[in-house]
Amino acid sequence: MAKHKIAWLPGDGIGIEVMDAARLVLDAVGFDAEYVHGDIGWEFWKSEGEPLPQRTLDVLRSTDAALFGAITSLPKEEAENELDASLRGKGLVYRSPIVRLRQEFHLHTNRRPCFAFPGNPLNLKEGIDLVVFRENTEGMYAGVEYHPLPDEVRTVLKAHNPAMGKFDKVAAGDIAITCRIITRQGAENIVRRAFEHAKKYGYPTVTIVEKPNVLRETSGLMVRVAREVAKDFDGIDLWETNIDAMVMWLIKNPQDYGVIVCSNLFGDVISDLCAQIVGGLGFAASGNIGDRYAVFEPTHGSAPKYFGQNKVNPMAMILSAQMMLDWLGEADMASRVKNAVGAVIAEGTLRTYDMGGSNTTTEVAQAVADKAGAGAPA
Ligand code: NAI
Ligand code: MG
């Protein structure tokens, strides 16, 4: 029996191509796994009205972790129009599979490493080595929203906070509210994971990015909890920075930061910024991590205009697989993959179009596989 059981979710478009590319690397390092294919994506929305069928959830429940490529998703009306004729008019609504996976499997932590591989022409600067920890299930994306605003909600809000009074004259249909929900448990969990990561990998600082001078309650709670958690980690400094200043500092002095921790919306914004300063979508790997299960995926989508051309950069997918190896405890394989990616970039002879080259997805992945595999156990 294989040592690990992995849900294999290629999805749509270039998701399929980059997953094939990552497989070359996983096989080369001798990763001992049984891969179980899972149906996910647009094809299943069109034919079944469900982009994440129940049978796929069952596959995930029977595996140790999942590797996911990318999916296509379209706005509500276009989604309805592409449904098989037999399914139209039944009130089926497209729901994002990845958001559903985060909820179904309590994948509370979104981790995005942003490492400037030396010699990558797309680096904003050399020497950047950041890891963003984004809370993945609450905050501004908790899904508690009101529009039109029910009278009861308005009355209760005003009874508990006079600031609501300034909207008295706005009609229910002309006001919308999204609740930013931070729990002590959610805050403590994400901050603790950020510190544990800093400790394990030797980062000297954890920066909490909030706005407590304005968002007194929610940001205030995040920062208070961060100060408490920091006491458990001698030798790692807690830096506190406001979100607006942070986007400036990340362009000016990105090499000064190590681990960064944020609530959901701020983390969403910061992690895209951090991805861009180390090469953009072709390099942006991520992990959606829970207590017992994790789904690893590149940040990019299905890039339909490049599908079938064997042209896109496989590094984001390969680095997502690398994170999976590390999470599964295969530290040696993980470091061999990271070093191989670094070596291929530093040599600079094989590059996909986004790096100014003309090599194929497969050529670049094979080069990484060859280097990562050298010295692999047979
Ligand atoms: P996208 O990420 O698919 O592509 C945008 C552009 O980024 C591409 O046209 C290409 O120029 C570049 N790019 C993306 N991946 C690259 C790679 N590996 N190497 C080199 N260049 C790369 O975003 P887009 O075009 O907005 O969305 C396409 C579809 O993907 C949509 O249906 C969207 O809903 C979906 N999507 C899915 C995501 C997911 O599965 N997690 C995330 C983002 C978008
Ligand atoms: Mg995003």
Structure commentary:
This protein is an alpha/beta fold and 378 residues long. It has 3 domains: 1-113 and 285-378, Isopropylmalate Dehydrogenase (3-Layer(aba) Sandwich); 124-141 and 182-277, Rossmann fold (3-Layer(aba) Sandwich); 145-178, no CATH class. It is 40% helix and 17% strand. The chain has helices spanning 14-28, 42-48, 54-61, 76-82, 97-104, 151-160, 184-201, 218-230, 243-252, 264-277, 315-327, 331-347, 361-373, and strands at residues 4-11, 33-37, 65-70, 109-115, 129-135, 145-146, 177-178, 205-210, 237-242, 259-262, 285-289, 294-298. Strands 2-1-3-12-11-4-5-10-8-9 form a 10-stranded mixed β-sheet, sandwiched between helices. The protein has a two-stranded antiparallel sheet with strand order 6-7. Helix 1 runs parallel beside helix 13. The two termini are 17 Å apart. The structure holds 1,4-dihydronicotinamide adenine dinucleotide and magnesium ion (MG). Magnesium ion is lined by residues 268, 272. The site of 1,4-dihydronicotinamide adenine dinucleotide (NAI) has 18 residues, from loops.
